[in-house]
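Can anyone check this?
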Amino acid sequence: METKIKEIAERIRALREIMSFTSEDMAMACDVSTDEYNTLESGCKDFSFTFLLKCAQKFGVDMVELLTGENPKLSEYTIVRKGKGLNIKRRKGFKYEHLATYFKNKLAEPFWVTAPYLADEQDKPISLSSHEGQELDFILNGSLKITIGEHTETLNAGDTIYYDSSVGHGMIATDGKPCDFIAVVMKKEKE
């Protein structure tokens, strides 16, 4: 994974330099300090999903381009076979599997997400992040406790939540087992 982190960091640095953005510009766009941004861009620390999404939005590129170095090319349809999506491990224990890796000009980023059950997080406040756009999460199996702003809800298999993802949000699996869900992250409309 270390090599992959370094490769992604190099792509981020190269795009920042090509677009003449400063580290401060990127830090502001990604809601991190300049020191934190520089640490991430150097490849010394793994990236969060939100950080990668915000970088891609600032650069105006598909997030897949940051992850793989390839530009999606399909425009009519794409199929991702079970278990064959682009794996992204960007949060303690969480697994994101991108479900439309090679489709270009996506209006949304679809993921199969597996949230781990972590006993030590059950009684702690849920860590929140935010990004532009909206999100839909559909629970496939297990239970998910999700906090959005000041509200906390528990969702079970078959439940769906749709929310403004610019509001701080975070989630953990509950009931002693992992939770699988489909997350569709929709991009903010251009003004």
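Reply from J.R.: I decoded it. The helical segments are 2-18, 23-30, 34-41, 49-59, 63-68.
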